[in-house]
Amino acid sequence: MNTEKSSTILLSNDDGVFSEGIKALINAMRPLGNIFVVAPDGGRSGMGCSVTSQIPVRAQLIQSEPNLTVYTCTGTPVDCIKLALGNLMPQKPDLIVAGINHGSNESINVHYSGTMGIAIEGALNKIPSIGFSLCNYSPEADFSQAAQYANIISRKILKMNFPAGICLNVNIPDIQHIKGIKICRQSNGVWSEEFEQRTDPHGFAYYWLTGTMQYPEKEYIDTDKYALANGYVSIVPCKIDVTAHEQIETFSRLFL
Amino acid sequence: MNTEKSSTILLSNDDGVFSEGIKALINAMRPLGNIFVVAPDGGRSGMGCSVTSQIPVRAQLIQSEPNLTVYTCTGTPVDCIKLALGNLMPQKPDLIVAGINHGSNESINVHYSGTMGIAIEGALNKIPSIGFSLCNYSPEADFSQAAQYANIISRKILKMNFPAGICLNVNIPDIQHIKGIKICRQSNGVWSEEFEQRTDPHGFAYYWLTGTMQYPEKEYIDTDKYALANGYVSIVPCKIDVTAHEQIETFSRLFL
């Protein structure tokens, strides 16, 4: 028996079920097993781990063929995973993969990323989970090389004894010759000039989210930022326990 | 000069600018200095660190008096903080406080909580930040005791040299006699049975987010869950660097 072939893999993303990135990821995963997709019905960028609590959500089966089931969902990326695991899938998946995201999720973007929201939700459910992002925001981005890396990385993860309480944030540079894969820490980025003020035809202000990312660190050779800038795929293992354990003593003294 | 009186404090929440929790928090903070509020125009529960990228957001000044400025905003809790820091406030605040949330944000809810999204956004901007939540989901919840703790904790935080890269997740039990404050780690909760399926009048399925939290840990005396269950206010210091540093070697070997 080919154990790879028997894997069940859940896919989602935050760019929507009809995006090029998820099509590339589906193609990359199909040789690995039975593919189950639950993805938003449109773009849900920057939604992090958000869930829909004030209105109900719906899901619709849009494709069903041997080893490939595709649902579209009106909710957030994390809603898609919760609905897949609790309501739609006949069995628990062996792996959850998200993406391939149109644009980088390096550094602190792990907090805002719907792609990484999916991976965090997978980790919270004790399932090996990976978010894949291509460092290219263009609608014409070519996902073929990123898809190859998604396949290589997912194969390895399916074979390993994946540690509990973590997920992987994988970013793939958009260059011709990738040098390899580096395991990194999250770099210290800072967003600046984020909301651009404009004036509507009636004279009132409104604001568009935009901004640029700054990297204040000088010593950053072990970061995702450095790996990507130097031609490597970056993989950051991310914890779901966000406790600053090293600060417990400081605050315990403060509140004695 | 009274240094406390000269503090500038930014407030926001995820229950909306007209909720009882933020009114209690404004009252608790007013003795500490100059208060600047930018809060959503309605409920934004479960929005985590999400940002609004596909439509513009607006803000409206609804109250302006000595030492108290209040804006309402059409965006997410994190949008409110970004807009406050980048566009609306004349100066950087000394402290950011979120809440008081209607309901607990203990354990893994840090990932879904808009209240904690605010605190994480503050930490990303290198500002001491605290999310306050009352463990009572009732619309009639009494925030007065929680507000007293918010005042006590914020006073201490304003006086200390707050560590970089962290924020605080404070949960306050809804009991008459609180025993004190405990600094804790995040407990390992797991949500189960999250989406409840219903059928609409036309025969189609839809799903409401609900569910219950399970706590699988046996040894949990050092967790927020334990502190709250035993009559203490819990404070979890939370990191914005989510790298699982202890896993870097394992994955480096895997991808050699």
Q: Which labels suit this protein?
A:
9-stranded mixed sheet; globular; alpha/beta; homodimer; 256 residues; Stationary-phase Survival Protein Sure Homolog, Chain: A
SSE order and pairing:
Two copies of one chain form a homodimer.
Chain A: E1 7-12, H1 20-29, E2 33-40, E3 59-65, E4 68-73, H2 77-88, E5 95-102, H3 114-124, E6 129-134, H4 144-159, E7 166-172, E8 180-183, E9 190-192, E10 195-199, E11 205-209, E12 212-214, H5 224-229, E13 232-239, H6 248-254
Parallel strand pairs in A: 1-2, 1-5, 2-4, 5-6, 6-7, 8-13
Antiparallel strand pairs in A: 3-4, 7-13, 9-12, 10-11
Helix pairs in contact in A: 1-4, 2-3
Describe the protein in words.
- The structure is a homodimer of 256-residue chains.
- With 256 residues, chain A is α/β, with parallel strands linked by helices.
- Chain A has helices at residues 20-29, 77-88, 114-124, 144-159, 224-229, 248-254; strands spanning 7-12, 33-40, 59-65, 68-73, 95-102, 129-134, 166-172, 180-183, 190-192, 195-199, 205-209, 212-214, 232-239.
- Chain A has one domain (7-187, 219-254): Survival protein SurE-like phosphatase/nucleotidase (Stationary-phase Survival Protein Sure Homolog, Chain: A, 3-Layer(aba) Sandwich), CATH 3.40.1210.
- Chain A has 6 helices and 13 strands.
- The longest helix of chain A has 16 residues, at 144-159.
- The termini of chain A are far apart.
- Chains A and B meet through helix 2, helix 3, strand 9, strand 10 and strand 11 of A and helix 2, helix 3, strand 9, strand 10 and strand 11 of B.
